[in-house]
Amino acid sequence: MSWPSNQPPQTGLSADDIARLNDKFAKSDAALGIEVAADFTPFEQRNDMFTRAFWDDDVRSDDTLGFFKSYRMKFATRRGEGFAQKDFALRNAAWAVSDIISSRGDAEGKREGFQAALDYDTPVARDQVTVDDPGAEAAEIKRLAKLFGADLVGITEVDERWHYSARVDTRDFSSVPNDLPEGISHVIVMGHAMDPDLVDTYPSALAGASTGLEYSHEAAIVIQLSTYIRNLGYEAVASMNDTALVIPYAVKAGLGEYGRNQMVITPEFGPRVRFSKIFTNLPLKPDVPEPLGIKQYCEICTRCAEACPPRALPFGEPEMASHNRSMLGGVKKWSADCEKCFGYWAKLKTDCAICMRVCPFNRRYDGWGDRLFRKLATGPWRKLALAWEERRGLPERLKAKDWWARLRG
Ligand code: SF4
Ligand code: SF4
């Protein structure tokens, strides 16, 4: 199949809408270092690499088909260390709950959590609980999100610049409207920390279990928290990678800063976090993010770019330009060449996160040395932290066989 298989629906924002939103969020954008061009256009989901792999002949190959088949063990496993049948088996088991939930809507062309928001079983309650204090309500929602299993929680206002201008119908990969219920005002953004030992084995099929585990956890958490809110009488749309770009929302909710490796780097877990979100009209007080000093460290560090096998990450300054259709243009930022990155994943038959593993912020933060690094790296002593890191050298990859040996005790 090659695009277009239909005309994209005209549901995206107009230039006037973008001007209004750029104006509305000018102060918070400036505080967070977000620069959005006047001619910015929201991203269309058909252009993300995973979606393109199904319709774009420039991307589709035996490698990409093998990548997807490997999640069902419909291919011959590589015998290399970290790529044996057991490694793929654990990765696929970690994904199982997310897979079951995301395939509920297959017949309607909705891959929930990825190409459509998660469906709900609970209607919005007829009677609405009164919320007198949005600050107290926000604090309570954050505690409940943690009760359900989230590691980080922040709240921000809805900002449609980051919503897909159209989503895709997975039956034929045509574009369809990406609508939310009327009146949605806030987004609850949650962070889900990945297992550090599994992350230490990137690149490997085994390491992919750290990704799958958090998708499975977050699917359950967004369903549970959105069900709670719907029972209070308010709209709540549970969302994972679907509906909107989660990275700007995580930054706007104060959970971390955007790094050269294209990930949100958090003070608590570095880049070792996945994010989910809930769109709601529950009255909530949004967070006001503080500068964290992480982006300034990225300005003097290029470790992730050096370690990336296909050289997909940039060494230079953040830029507005987009170099292929899968890159979001019109926002000043570091951008990976997603085509090179996904091409490498397809060859491996699993996800790669070497750029997460080697990042100096990928630490446990349970010892004074890690905390001292963070203190130095995010303040005026960042060059000292960089020199310390250079002396420490690239962290060694944990061999998958050693991970399995530790498991056996
Ligand atoms: S490796 Fe260095 S440049 Fe890359 S994201 Fe981490 S701190 Fe930033
Ligand atoms: S995930 Fe791997 S291939 Fe992609 S940018 Fe990071 S290191 Fe490079």
Outline the fold blueprint:
Blueprint: H1 15-24, H2 26-32, H3 49-55, H4 62-70, H5 85-102, H6 134-148, E1 152-157, E2 167-169, E3 174-176, E4 186-193, H7 196-199, H8 208-231, E5 236-239, H9 246-252, E6 257-258, E7 264-265, E8 273-280, H10 294-300, H11 303-307, H12 338-348, H13 354-357, H14 368-377, H15 382-392, H16 400-408
Antiparallel strand pairs: 1-4, 2-3, 4-8, 5-8, 6-7
Helix pairs in contact: 4-12, 5-8, 6-8, 14-15
One iron/sulfur cluster is lined by residues 259-261, 297-298, 301-304, 359-361.
Characterise the protein shown here.
- The protein has 409 residues and is α+β, with helices and mostly antiparallel strands.
- 39% of the residues lie in helices and 9% in strands.
- The strands form three sheets. The chain has a four-stranded antiparallel sheet with strand order 1-4-8-5, sandwiched between helices. A two-stranded antiparallel sheet has the order 2-3.
- A hairpin with a 5-residue loop joins strand 6 and strand 7.
- Helix 5 packs parallel to helix 8 (208-231).
- Bound molecules: iron/sulfur cluster (2 copies).
